[in-house]
């Protein structure tokens, strides 16, 4: 979650374009995990997992990164 805190007050529309592309993932009835990949300016590639869970009200929330 530190990644989202570091974003500060940037509009989400600006941030969304920098997240990357979903490379793979899994979705179940109450849990989902995706792997997001991004090409960096220095010609390297970064990847990170995002885990999401569905709460009792049906809202999907980020559980971990």
Alpha-beta classification: alpha+beta
Low-pLDDT stretches: none
Number of strands: 4
Mean model confidence by pLDDT? 83
Taking strands numbered 1, 2, ... along the chain, how are they ordered across the largest sheet?
1-2-3-4
Tally of contiguous helical segments: 2
* Morphology: globular
Helix share, percent: 10-25%
Rg calculated over all Cα atoms: 13 Å
N-to-C CA distance: 6 Å
β-sheet strand percentage: over 45%
The main pleated sheet reads as: 4 strands, antiparallel
What count of structural domains?
A: 1
The helix/strand series, from N terminus to C terminus, equals HHEEEE
SSE map:
Elements: H1 2-6, H2 12-16, E1 21-27, E2 31-39, E3 45-54, E4 60-64
Antiparallel strand pairs: 1-2, 2-3, 3-4
What would your notes on this structure say?
The protein is α+β, with helices and mostly antiparallel strands and about 60 residues long. It has one domain. The chain is about 15% helix and about 50% strand. A 4-stranded antiparallel sheet has the order 1-2-3-4, with no helix packed on it.
């Amino acid at each position: 979650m530190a990644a989202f805190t570091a974003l500060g007050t940037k509009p989400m529309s600006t941030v969304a374009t920098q997240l990357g592309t979903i490379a793979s993932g899994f979705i179940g009835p109450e849990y989902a995990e995706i792997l997001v990949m991004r090409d960096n300016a220095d010609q390297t590639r970064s990847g990170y997992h995002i885990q999401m869970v569905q709460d009792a009200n049906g809202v999907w929330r980020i559980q971990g990164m």
